[in-house]
Structure prediction request, 343 residues.
Amino acid sequence: MFIRNAWYIGAWAHEVEQAPFARTIMNEPIVFFRDHAGKVGALEDRCCHRAAPLRFGQVVEGGLECGYHGMVFDGSGQCVKIPAQDKIPAKACVRHYAVVEKDEFIWIWMGDPELADESSIIDYPFHNDHERWPHKHAVYEIEASYKLMVDNLMDMTHVGYVHKSTIGGNPNVHVDAKTVVTPGDNGLKYVRWLLNSPPPATYSKVVEFKGNIDRWAEFEYIAPSSIIQWTGGIDVGKGAQENRDQDGVAIRVFHGLTPVTETSCLYFWAPAHGFRQDEPQITEALYREIDTAFKEDKRIVEAQQAMLLSTGEDRTVDLVSDAARIQMRRVMQRLEKESNPVD
Prediction:
């Protein structure tokens, strides 16, 4: 069951050029393209004539031309040209999707187009501030449900075990962390403080600390599938809990999960660093470290998905440390019911 009446990331902005760019979202084949004015469009990847995929076409004056028989469709899905035919049948159209280009993302609305409110799209200004927050981004194809990936991100107790050699560090530090969970109408936020703890390997590679640090991890879940992360660490004794804007590590990460099928998804992520901003090698080094860590998540969550498909979820047990994940799932369940009402 999908939450359709919501905005999802369909692509990074740079992925969509004039050449058609195909993706599957929620089991639906979609083709993205830019018209000659640079405006992004998204259509069902199926010509209404003979069902040829539109991804084999090209962008021409007026819209996207089918590569099989030359019909042209504009961004609204309406056929505007049929070679050697003046009259265009009313049924000569394909489904179109509302799309918005914002903050380096291409957002797509998969539900009722009448409910597509652009003002509800997440603001993420850090992607537009390359001077203060240099960053690099990626997208993974994950062979697991987007829900399991959101579970993973809302469960920080795994970090010390899965990511010991990179962003994690000592597992006991994570288990003993002080955590505050704050629920909201459309998601929740939690903050974890790992006080007077050794810096993890990733932090030590980019900043020289005097010793132990006061470390934080703040995650905001915005339903159905976006997580905004702010994490970092400062030398002990500098009042990090009162003021995080000090010398040390400060990293912001956007995580966006987009369902491909019920058991696969796209994982869009981008780490930005608020320290040593004028050193491109730091941007690259941090990206490599986090790429390594997130591939560890990919490996374990894909294995988890395979096991759940084989054995089911009936024998899983919730723990106290699952508080944020459990509240997040409740929000998802409510939105699923609202998006898929039973007559």
